[in-house]
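Ligand-bound model needed. nicotinamide-adenine-dinucleotide.
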Amino acid sequence: MSICTLRSLNLAQSLPLCTISSHSGHRGITELVFIVQFLANSVLMAAVTAENLIIECAKQMGESSILRQANCRAKGAAPGFKVAILGAAGGIGQPLAMLMKINPLVSVLHLYDVVNSPGVTADISHMDTGAVVRGFLKQEQLASALTGMDLVIIPAGVPRKPGMTRDDLFNINAGIVRTLCEGIAKCCPKAIVNLISNPVNSTVPIAAEVFKKAGTYDPKRLLGVTMLDVVRANTFVAEVLGLDPREVDVPVVGGHAGVTILPLLSQVKPPCSFTPEETEYLTNRIQNGGTEVVEAKAGAGSATLSMAYAAVKFADACLRGIRGDKDVVACAFVDSQVTELPFFATKVRLGPNGAEEVYQLGPLNAYERAGLEKAKKELAESIQKGISFARK
Ligand SMILES: NC(=O)c1ccc[n+]([C@@H]2O[C@H](COP(=O)([O-])OP(=O)(O)OC[C@H]3O[C@@H](n4cnc5c(N)ncnc54)[C@H](O)[C@@H]3O)[C@@H](O)[C@H]2O)c1
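Prediction:
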């Protein structure tokens, strides 16, 4: 018998039992009263025993027992923003959730996925940082995951695998993004959305169409995450220049796939120049950074850790923008009038409503102008593909 059970039985036995009086002239009634009292005592004892058993077991299990956990949640150290990650149990989602739990601007972190979100939530919720973490599983909990959120980050979907066609990837992820954005339109239409799911060049137009259909579209609030291209560009350029990557700022414009990724090496800060060979090498490496990781992982997925880092860098910039910090600038794939295309990635100024200002391209050299034409051609097709999918 367990310690809990023993302890409960002892306590139950020490209860005062109801006293029974016997009068010879009322033998039948007395026996009836006795039976009723006996039954009442038994029920009382059983109830106290059960309650005591639960309390005692809870004590034995410590503060994290199921009982206490339900009533007692960390309050979060400081006021901050409410952030949801959709696809939080994935290769990007998990490190992204961990890094957002560390972010002091986050007070509430909602982790949603169609699988494994309870495990990821339990794990991350043990980190002693300010944000309160809650998990949500499957479509029926999507509304609860989204309600009240300031920022929604979407890495849900399938990653590129060797042998997978672009169409395979598109068809799966387009449907996922559409469903999730329908949820956002209903439950948190004012949230700023960071869309990571590929192909970003098509998923951002899909999200825009969903929001337009729902009557909630605010172009400033929808941002395709291209930060990984910038992170890679900063790293590779720093390697060539022999600098610390943190000192390097490379604008990367266009879109987020192959030739649509256009690093503007003529605008690198600190100002520097590159030989034609260096320009060719850097442009190719930045455009094919994703493939470099897919091939190195040999079937085990695409960039997840550097992507989570880039996503957090971008989300943090968005949160600082919402907070009202001045001069928060980052590259993103947004609704744009910079070119004739309806969406394009450039530097944007982030503010309380998202992309408050979309910057122009600035002066391009001949190499970049040729790259821009190639990028625009492919981008136009990807954007149209997204729009057609959403309007079907
Ligand atoms: N924007 C970028 O720079 C960039 C970089 C790398 C990868 N990606 C893209 O990010 C996405 C995720 O990549 P990953 O490596 O984390 O993939 P993954 O397969 O490891 O994780 C994806 C997660 O999404 C979840 N998911 C699937 N359907 C869902 C739905 N309907 N609702 C909620 N969650 C759902 C899965 O259960 C899984 O946990 C892919 O589309 C990938 O191509 C984008």
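The chain is about 50% helix and 15% strand.
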